[in-house]
Amino acid sequence: MFTGLVESQAPLGPIAPFGSGLRLRVADPGWSEGLETGASVAVDGCCLTVTGREGGFFSLDVTRATLGRTRFGSLHEGALVNLERPLAVGARLGGHWVQGHVDGLLRVTQIERAGETCYVDLSLPLEAGEWVVPQGSIALNGVSLTVLDRVSDALRVAIIPHTWSSTNLSAVVPGDTLHVEYDVLAKYVTAAVHRHLGSHVPKL
Q: Does the global pTM surpass 0.90?
């Protein structure tokens, strides 16, 4: 379990095929606690397991199923990724509940600057509309953000300067895709309502 508060960015090292998936190598972010073999770490919001450490890098194996939901297959050596260690028991929950289970990809359609704030618009699949509401939470590339606005097939988030400069969102341009994890509480509530009301549930 994570919070969506990115601790560090780090560049990818060499990427190699591994079985039907990939083996990622990520440069040491400057802290080693929590990067022991077998530990979990969120990489751009995707929970992966550390499989080894060597030469200033730690390794993570990405399965074919995970490749199908993420952008890891299109990343290149040197690309910066967001890193976060799991939430420790008793620690402050500063963002929102983020499982590290990426739901898919959202495409950036527009980036607008107003003063120091960046507004990012993204396309939204119609089937995900029930999980996204204004003032609700969403994780993009592992970053906990608040939905500013939402229409049937798009959403907008506002990103403050600190978040913009301390995550890889600052490198995003229109046309790029980002990992998305919708609010798990919204997904559970929606599933429960559908079980009880079925087709009578109104669309948001």
A: yes
